[in-house]
Amino acid sequence: MRSTIVLISLALLPVFIYWLRIDYAQNGMPALLSRAKRELEAAGLEQVDVQLNYLDARLSGFLQHPDSRDRAEKIVERLPGVRIPPGNNLITVAAALAYSIKDGQLILKGWLPNLDSQRAIEHMTQLFRPELKLESSAVRLSPYVELGRPVEMPEGPVPSCFQKVLEDLRVPASLSIKRDGDRYILKGMLRSEETRKAVISAAAMSGWELDSSGLRWNSHCGQAPFAAGNGLPRFVEALFSSPTPGEFEIDVRNGPRVSGYVTPGTEAVWLSLLRAVSGEAKVELDVTRVPSSFHFPDYKPTSTLPEGMAKPLVALLKKQSVYFKEGADTLEPSEAVKLGSLFAAVVAAGPEARFIIAGYGDEAMERGSSGRLRVRRVENVRNQLVRMGVPKDVLETSVFDAVRPPGPLSEDVRLGARKVELLLK
Prior knowledge:
Elements: H1 2-42, E1 49-53, E2 56-60, E3 62-63, H2 66-77, E4 92-94, E5 96-102, E6 105-112, H3 115-128, E7 133-141, E8 145-146, E9 150-153, E10 156-159, H4 160-169, E11 174-180, E12 183-190, H5 193-204, E13 209-217, H6 231-240, E14 247-251, E15 257-262, H7 264-278, E16 284-289, H8 310-319, E17 322-323, H9 333-336, H10 338-349, E18 355-361, H11 371-388, E19 395-401, H12 411-416, E20 419-424
Parallel strand pairs: 3-4, 4-8, 6-7, 12-13, 15-16, 18-19
Antiparallel strand pairs: 1-2, 5-6, 9-10, 11-12, 11-14, 14-15, 17-20, 18-20
Helix pairs in contact: 3-4, 5-6, 6-7, 10-11
């Protein structure tokens, strides 16, 4: 009897196992899948898809962090009887990169698919910022990381996770020229060594002492209209052709900013050259307008004078300007007496000194004025000085546009358009 029962049980065992398999497929497996879905959603991992082959699980999906991939695997393996065979976690993760800069060190962190991708970003960051020491030990590598579609950069196509890091590391193109005592300091970043050398060469032609150690070049710096071509060196050459070169700044976020002394002609040249390099950016001028190069603070007279005499002589001449009445070219007696002081100054300067008799004028600033009026004024002053005994060959005549500041014309401004002064050449 017992043997019969055993034989019957053995005969029914396949049927029982088959029934259990059917029941698990119809009830147990869906319940496990439902539970897995609930627990994954509770953990914020609803993107993960779980498939069961009885008790063997297979995971797929796309997540943003490798740790999320590991969490999903642990959640599913905690289910009763469920296991994930090797190679069955097929969840992929988006590649990610971040960086920080500290104490001259560029620190990369994130996750990438393989060593080739790590070497690629290391190479590019070193091209963008060669002055920084690279540390990339915090970059994790995993074959389940996906780089994603490439994006276009000026350097060519790169993985999308590279783009933000590289653009953030890209140094903006810029140029700064500042004065420090008797030298000019050039700083910034330009896109080519050729442009850098051309800018330095243009500034060096002036003879001023230069410190250009802070002016660098990198073909991966930010693109800007002024950083290409010869427009920038041409402006720098014009800037340093002044007796007192101004200061200058430009970058990709701001238009050109210039300060310094300018004549009307210099200002027009500067604006023309700057518009060629600034694109749509506004040109900002913070300048002191003077009639001629002889009025610049650093103008160096070519006349040979006794040592220490130039500065006091220039100051004296400035105080002895003579003024004419509106529309007149003949000096009033009260102004003519100043010619005696001018005669004495010329004689004291010695036979090697040379002078410019400068006249000013502007038809908008003096009613009834004309271009000939200022010429007649300087000729009359010259003739009177010659009659007093000044040699003709030490006196030259010239006329300049009077400086007209912004705003309404004051009486002092109008008066300045009717003066004649002696300048040391």
